[in-house]
Automatic annotation (TrEMBL):
It comes from Gordonia sesuvii. It comes from the Bacteria. This is DUF732 domain-containing protein. Keywords: Signal. The keyword Signal applies. Residues 1-26 form the signal peptide.
Length: 136
């Protein structure tokens, strides 16, 4: 999967991405340590700090996100030019988390939202691969 590849179902993928981002429940930190050079590795869900929210997708939803090319949909969302690099970085982070989660049998993706961004953004989002034993 690549954020550069063409969209197969852009409306469905964009709707799914927005549903995932909007379906947060209390729970993991949007500020993670850098991933190893070869990309992130699925593990335990990220813990959350006070005020952060987490959504742990099921394995089926994670597979559906991959089949809908959600990272491509995120990358193609219309944003002002000054936000384009951040939008592409968000899509790439989601793409890497999906790929790593699907390498783990039963793996899933965790979305973490920090609604009190400290860098001037409205929100900080993080996508993390979670190992299958922690997913449903």
């Amino acid at each position: 999967m690549s954020v550069i590849s063409s969209l197969r179902r852009p409306c469905a993928a964009a709707a799914f991405a927005l549903a995932v981002i909007g379906s947060s429940v209390a729970g993991a930190s949007a500020h993670a340590t850098p991933a190893p050079e070869d990309g992130p590795v699925a593990g335990a869900p990220m813990p959350t700090a006070d005020g952060e929210f987490s959504y742990l997708a099921t394995h089926d939803v994670t597979e559906q996100a991959a089949s809908l090319a959600v990272p491509d949909a995120v990358a193609s969302l219309p944003v002002p030019q000054e936000y384009r690099p951040a939008n592409l970085a968000l899509a790439a982070q989601f793409d890497m988390a999906l790929a790593a989660a699907l390498k783990s049998p039963g793996g899933c993706v965790q979305v973490v939202v920090d609604p009190q961004a400290r860098d001037g953004s409205l929100f900080n989002y993080g996508f993390f691969p979670v190992a299958g034993e922690h997913c449903s």
